Amino acid sequence: MIEASGDTTAATSDARRRWPGWAAYAASAWALVFAAVHLYWALGGTAGLPKGMSVDMNPALFVIDVLAVPLSVVGALLALSLVRPWGRLFPHRLLLASAWAVCALLVIHSAPTLVEGGLVVTGLRDAELPVLEWWSLFVYEPWFLVGGVLYGAAAWGHGRSRLSRPGPAGPDRRRRDAQGVATDGSPNRRSR
Questions:
Q1: Residues 6 or more apart from 120 whose CB is under 8 A from it?
Q2: Mutual angle of helices 59-81 and 92-121, in 10-degree steps
Q3: Is the pLDDT of residue 78 over 80?
Q4: What is this structure's pTM?
Q5: If DSSP codes are grouped into helix, strand and coil, which group holds residue 100?
Q6: How confident is the model over 159-184, as pLDDT tens digits?
Q7: CA distances (Å), origin 156, targets 21, 97, 103, 174
């Protein structure tokens, strides 16, 4: 029975190590879907837009769509750089700060509308919501919030994985093995 408990603990520990990677992949997928939708709208598509709205009627929407596509692709690459080996080419702090900045931008973008809309929907605030506001409340803003949570989880996981690595970047750097050699390869100064 003790072994089963150990196996469960090992499986739980393994899942805890892997979830930040899945959060980064999910954030990347989120950004690519976001880019695809904006590309579709920039090319004249109207699905997912309120009835009667299109880039033909709203040039500002076209500009937003054109800017959102490359920014979203960069965001997808940022999320992947947190978990892929080629991400080590970039400074750790830059990646972490960028991921947290994307998280903050997406959450700050969505939070006020979701709070305001929640007050109206629950009846705590009297107001009529036009169709565009309903779309915003139930489609657009939750999508931004999901992206913010995914980028936050990916950033948090990246920061924690960096701390748990052996060597100069992690807490194991002073741990010694049986031969008196530190795990980072430096000699044990206490054995002299």
A1: 126, 127, 129
A2: 130
A3: yes
A4: 0.72
A5: helix
A6: 877 655 544 444 444 444 455 555 54
A7: 11, 11, 10, 24
